[in-house]
Amino acid sequence: MARRAVILAGGLGTRLRPYTVVLPKPLMPVGDRPVLDIVVRQLRTRQFDQVTIATGYLAELIEAFFRDGDAYGIPIDYYREHEPLGTVGALGLIDGLDEDFLVMNGDILTDLDYAQLLADHQKSDAIATIATRTTKVQISLGVLDFADEDDATLLTNYFEKPNIEYESSMGVYCFDPRVKEFIAPGERLDFPDLMLRLVHEGEKVRAWRSNDFWLDIGRPEDYEQAQDDIEALQDRLIPPE
Length: 241
Fold this sequence. Notes:
single chain, alpha/beta, Spore Coat Polysaccharide Biosynthesis Protein SpsA, Chain A, 7-stranded mixed β-sheet
């Protein structure tokens, strides 16, 4: 069975301005190479057969950089958005998605096994699989619990700068080809809306929990963290030539 990946790389990258005024976010360098260069090399190493990059903002720069994928040893084609379609709307217009396929954002660094994720999805009866991880966030405020009693609101608990854990999307998904039935061609659609639409229609959406390294470079502080970490993580993230 063929392994196909769709990389979503059309966003404006507004949180990383002014850097993204001249470079699309997936071409932002981490160490000595763009983040999307790392992703494509990882997919080749995991023996994916085809990569489709959905472009939009500064599309010509991404297309000129990767061309047809010959330099990477993996065929690369493109779907260019001519108007913004949200984070997932482009899937409704990409041809040839006839087998289960992987979808991922083009601005993440992770060492999860894309091939294993896709294989696990193919063995399931779910229409969609979301790669997830537990994320811990510290609230930099005092958090209060109150209860209403008669004419007073009384304190019941007080947490000083608590840590909150939640399960978050890693920006990596697998889909059954039937998912296109739920995306109207040209519809502007974001991932949360699609997932909730699938659940509402009775489809199974499953989690694939991961403890792998993961970093979204979409915020300046995360991009700076990636620059600090890349030397130590290079062997984990960047496949050998």
